[in-house]
Design a protein that fits this description.
Number of strands: 9
CATH architecture: Alpha-Beta Complex
CATH class: Alpha Beta
Strand order of the largest sheet: 4-1-8-7
Strand content: 25-35%
Order of helices and strands: HEEEEHEEHEEEH
CATH superfamily: Nucleoside Triphosphate Pyrophosphohydrolase
Helix content: 10-25%
Length: 165
């Protein structure tokens, strides 16, 4: 499913391959003291070029938090002066988590996501990020520069629910 296709074609192929679900994902909502939120720009369908919370599908042998940490690091390479942030550093920044299970939250089918909120010490200038894996780009955004139309699926709603907007 890596060739360039429309979102509708992607959704059709996805459901043919994986069925309607339920499927489970984990997302990492990351904030800094300057209230900036870390987002990625999707590099391929669905939602290519839209902003999204770093995250993705869990592996069969993973716990939810571990999947959120893995996806965060894969998609953003989040690091500081010491290098890639460790799981221990990120776990210390964990503040809350919430399940988002609206049956219609994704065009891919029934996808239940677990969003974890992390509040990192210091400002966003302390942390380097770059898009990687399936993210075309990664960056820090001020909530007042974001609009729902820029966001993938229900990610605007998730950010609001977790107090990131």
């Amino acid at each position: 499913m890596t060739d360039q296709v429309s979102d509708e074609e992607y959704y059709r192929r996805y459901k043919e391959t994986w069925g309607p679900g339920p499927h489970v994902t984990a997302d990492a909502v990351v904030l800094c003291r300057d209230a900036r939120v870390l987002l990625v720009r999707r590099g391929r369908p669905p939602g290519q070029n839209l902003l999204a919370i770093p995250g993705g599908f869990i592996n069969l042998d993973e716990r939810l938090l571990d999947a959120a940490l893995r996806e965060l690091k894969e998609e953003t390479g989040i690091s500081d002066e010491m290098g890639l942030l460790s799981d221990e550093t990120l776990r210390a920044a964990l503040r809350s988590n919430q399940v988002f299970d609206d049956p219609h939250r994704s065009g891919r089918g029934r996808i239940i996501t677990h969003a974890f909120l992390f509040r990192l010490p210091g400002t966003s200038e302390r942390y380097r990020v770059a898009g990687s894996d399936d993210a075309a780009d990664a960056g820090w955004y001020s909530p007042n520069e974001l609009e729902p139309s820029q966001m993938f699926e229900d990610h605007w709603h998730i950010l609001k629910a977790l107090g990131a907007l």
